[in-house]
Amino acid sequence: MSHGTSLTVPRPRRTHLLAPALATAALSLIACGDSSAESETQGGSSAGSDASAGATTNTSAPSSSSGASATGSGGSASTSTSTSTAGPTTPASISDTNDATSGSTGAPDTSASASTDASTGASTTADATTTGASTAVDTLTTDSGDSSDSGDPMCQGPQDCPPPPVCMDSTCTEGQCGTSPSPAATPCEGDGLCDGQGVCVECLQAADCPSQVCDDGVCQPASCDDGIENGAETDVDCGGDCPDKCAEGQGCQVDGDCETDSCDGQVCQAGGAACLNAPPNPATGQGCPLFSECSEFSDCGVFQDCQQWYCDAGQCALNTLSNCWDTVGGQCVADVVITQHVDPPVDKDFLPPDGVDFREVGSLTITIQNNTADDLYLDNIPLQLNTSGGGSSFDVSSLKLYQDFGGSDWETPGDFFFCITGNPFQFPQNGVLGPCGGSFASRVAKNGGTRRFVITFAFAKEKTFINGRSYRLRLDANADLEFRVGGTQGPPFQGSQCGIPNTDFVGAWVNAKSL
Known about the structure:
The chain is 8% helix and 25% strand.
């Protein structure tokens, strides 16, 4: 074979499933066929030669996998021919398939033709696969119905697609399944809502939450600083279980919801005690209990005999007027004469401890007259406790003694506190107030000098109170009323005393109340 231009004919693109059977049939035909049929075949092409070039052309049927090629040089041509034992009588499409599958050396196939290029004188042998054979194979392949190459769509609509994730909707676009976010507020996972971005959240707005507070898709618990009226509040961040009380004009359920402690018609009213409209106590003229809030004199009470109720620094107070009382005792002659003032102090209501350190209320007032030649210092006072309404001696946290300069029930300007005894009605005090003689304030001047003393109850904030409990003091034995002679460190007084009547000195009742 001379060197020159080489033409390589490509192999068929794919083989039909019928190829093995057809190849078998082709072999059978070749074995029995007539070699004289080489010049004629179904679907074949003719071979011609160019007379001017003087080239001789032979037909070739490259039934082997290598295919035949012809080369030419100058004006002459040589032809290489592949032969087989018998000429094919099968159609080109079948011989082409046989060529691809059998790999045998075959005889010339009339289904293929060779032509010679007149201008170059080259002789070319053509592979039958370039003719109708490849077309036949392609046609068989197309008829096989392979859907992977046909472009059929995967879906006709969203209903053909798999179920989407939560808060996503199925889509079908140009036959392809996909997803897109569900519309905002679409229900999801129980009480959740889709946010329009494909996420299931607890809330989208304040109205979605019981607390009316939605933050980043999550309902927040009610609080007293969120700027919303929620939870047990009676208005925005106040009242109910909030530490702040509501201002005048804000909502309320009870008096305690309001800064003014006055709730009427579920609205906090102007300042003033809740008992402003209560009539004064007919015996004492008292309106509101001691220590209740007040804004003016009339909140607390009215003048009544020898006492005056008034408003002192926003709290109800009682002023007992000097030289306006009846006395008991004192109708005797002795070194020391004791007199009780019956009216002041008077029975009174008071508010129990409510967070303050203590509530203090006067019960018993006495006057001591010293007829000796030495100053005497009041040291110990024997006392008894009366209770009613369920009161107990354990309720009284202490007794206090004041030097009274006149005009008040206790500690109002002029009074001077100087002695205290804790848990006075529990062992070992046993109802004795003292010792108190170590203070200059306990002095009663010599030669007829007098001094007025006030004894008060004190109720500490940790004590428990029941509405209606009442307490009062009694002084029933002057013999146990002790003094020191000449000074705070002087000896005990040994002189005579008188003045306490058989009915004892009885103090005023103090009554625990609640508004």
